[in-house]
Design goal:
- The protein is about 40% helix and about 15% strand.
- It is of the alpha/beta class.
- Strands 3-4-2-5-6-1-7 form a 7-stranded parallel beta sheet, with helices on both faces.
Length: about 600
């Protein structure tokens, strides 16, 4: 810990030091140590950091230090992409300002009473945290005045831009005086982010958390190679075997969220779902029940859980492997907080191993293969817990009133051993099902052992996506299912696709007209090599969003600005429906049937 910076060594007021001490913070996180000095100086700052790195305190502490207390006007504003993140940031800022008198923080967001929010603003809020849409609404009503604000923070700016808030953000910036401090935090540095910073930030200082600092060392990360149909069974076995009480389960689709919740509830687990179709009041109720521990298992999509921060989460289960490497970091960052340990389990089906390797390359962490607990393993763990509870209950005493129950059962002809075994079974709630004695390990792993392959990923592995990062750079090594037509990768072709709609298939690499299998439908996707798309990204998105097996896709032809994908006819309508509005590597895509030449 010698290379870390202690909070009490930084130039903070007594109020801030008292607050961070009460919150249990002793050392500044990397993003805090780098960003706080520059923000305190009043400089514009670009912070590249993911959820769970302590970025709220990184901008919140200097913001509170700069506020003139007891002055009843808005001095600083924080923009957040979602209501959940806005509420989370507000809660953190209130904790940080607890011992700083005269600082008042309020939250404004859609789905809540605007009259209540206007009343709160009129009372004299110093710091406003809000979503762009509601902030604009309040400005237009002249209830929110930013003419004296000197600081604005754009939290998770990449997400706000992806959600279409750019015009709102620019309108809000125009309401704040030119002499202002702008702090922007983003998980990625996209072209949109850079364009925004170039226009509105003055000589900004860039601070970032490097990749080897992204994943928490307190999180045990394991993957499990499973049969697709056994995902739920493996999930519940992991929950029971590791005795997980508060768990976040991530899916790639809203429909999958509802299915998983229904199955968990059927099996006796207190579960609820969180996705974009819920009204704000419903989302708030679900989150409160999860935070309070009344619901132990929250199933969510990545977008719905953006900015979600709940203490004491035991573990994260990636029911669906994330479609983007950064989503993985966001997901597992919900556990292992504040020095506590956590678990992150990822269920991998068949050829998804390739996507898992991409995640490991990105995070610079080797995710070890876990062993799926058997039915006997789960029963053994529950037996041990049951014995401990029984022993504790006996020690408590006051059992006389229940003695006649045992006598009644014995008079009915049951032995003491039968009675005790039945009580154990009822208490444990374990029922042997069709998976009881089955090997739930995926076909991919069994084949790998059969042919002597190891976990490093054999280039000739028939279970994976053919071609890896290297083959994407070399068209000859990537020959086969995923091919890039070399005629479209050179400089002379750049810009050729501008303002054109879906086009028909190109010629194949031998110059002959490409002919798709008559059982396939050729589809056009409006992204390509310019967006650094790989075949595994395409397969992952199509399989994850549509629920179709990734190995049924035909040839994938990636060009500079678009991609062609062969999809079996029976899945065509499903793909067109489910891929509408979907994202690949954070970019919303258009998927259409390719037009013939």
């Amino acid at each position: 810990m010698s290379n870390q910076i202690r909070f009490d060594s930084l130039p903070f007021s007594e109020g801030i030091l008292a607050a961070v001490n009460e919150m249990g913070f002793e050392f500044a996180s990397p993003i805090q140590a780098e960003a706080i000095p520059f923000i305190l100086e009043g400089r514009d700052v670009i912070g590249q950091a993911q959820t769970g790195t302590g970025k709220t305190a990184a901008f919140g502490i200097p913001m509170i230090e700069h506020v003139a207390p007891f002055e009843k006007y808005v001095q600083a504003i924080v923009l957040c992409p979602t209501r959940e993140l806005a509420l989370q940031v507000t809660e953190e800022l209130k904790k940080l300002s607890k011992f700083t008198k005269g600082v008042w923080v309020t939250t404004v967001y859609g789905g809540d009473s605007i009259e209540r929010q206007i009343k709160s603003l009129k009372a004299g809020a110093n710091i406003v945290v809000g979503t762009p849409g509601r902030v604009i609404d309040l400005i237009e009503r002249r209830a929110l005045k930013l003419g004296q604000a000197s600081m604005i923070v754009l939290d998770e700016a990449d997400e706000m831009l992806d959600m279409g808030f750019r015009e709102d953000i620019e309108s809000i910036l125009q309401e704040i005086p030119e002499e202002r401090q702008v702090v922007l935090f983003s998980a990625t540095m996209s072209k949109q982010i850079m364009a925004l910073t170039n226009r509105y930030l003055t000589n900004p200082k860039l601070v970032k958390v490097v990749k080897n600092e992204i994943t928490n060392v307190n999180i045990e990360q394991l993957y499990f190679d499973v049969k697709g149909r056994a995902k739920m069974e493996v999930t519940t076995r992991l929950i029971d075997f590791y005795n997980l009480k508060l768990v976040l389960i991530f899916c790639n689709q809203k429909k999958r969220v509802d299915e998983v919740v229904e199955e968990l509830v059927t099996r006796g687990y207190a579960a609820e779902g969180l996705h974009g179709d819920l009204r704000q009041s419903q989302r708030t109720q679900v989150m409160n029940r999860f935070r309070n521990g009344n619901v132990g298992f929250l199933v969510a999509t990545d977008v719905a859980a953006r900015g979600l921060d709940v203490e004491n989460v035991d573990g994260v289960i990636n029911y669906d492997i994330p479609l983007d490497e950064e989503y993985y970091v966001h997901r597992i960052g919900r556990t292992g907080r504040a020095g506590k340990s956590g678990k992150a389990f990822t269920l991998v089906v068949g050829s998804e191993r390739n996507r898992l390797r991409e995640i490991m390359n990105y995070t610079k962490v080797k995710i070890e293969k876990g062993v799926i607990p058997s039915f006997t393993d789960v029963v053994g763990v529950k037996k041990g817990m049951f014995i401990e509870r029984v022993a504790a209950t006996i020690e408590e005493g006051d059992l006389e009133v229940f003695n006649d129950a045992l006598t009644s059962l014995q008079h009915a002809g049951y032995t003491t051993e039968q009675i005790v075994s039945a009580l154990v079974k009822i208490s444990m709630g374990v029922q042997k099902n069709e998976f009881g004695d089955e090997n739930l390990e995926g076909e991919f792993e069994r084949q790998s052992r059969k042919y002597g392959r190891d976990d490093r990923g054999d280039r000739g592995d028939r279970g994976g996506y053919r071609g890896d990062r290297g083959s994407e750079r070399d068209g000859r090594r990537g020959a086969g299912r995923f091919e890039r037509d070399s005629r479209f990768g050179g400089r002379e072709d750049r810009g050729r696709d501008r303002d054109r709609g879906p086009r028909g298939p190109r010629n194949d690499k031998e110059g002959k007209p490409y002919r798709s299998d008559e059982n396939m439908v050729r589809m056009f996707v409006n992204i390509g090599f310019n967006e650094k798309i790989s075949p595994s990204n395409i397969v992952g998105a199509f399989a994850g969003e549509s629920g179709i097996p990734g190995n049924v896709l035909g040839q994938i032809q990636i060009e500079n600005k678009h991609t062609y994908v062969d999809v079996p006819k029976e899945y065509a309508n499903v793909v067109l429906d489910k891929m509408t509005g979907a994202q690949i590597k954070g970019k919303r895509v258009i998927v259409e049937i390719a037009k013939p030449m």
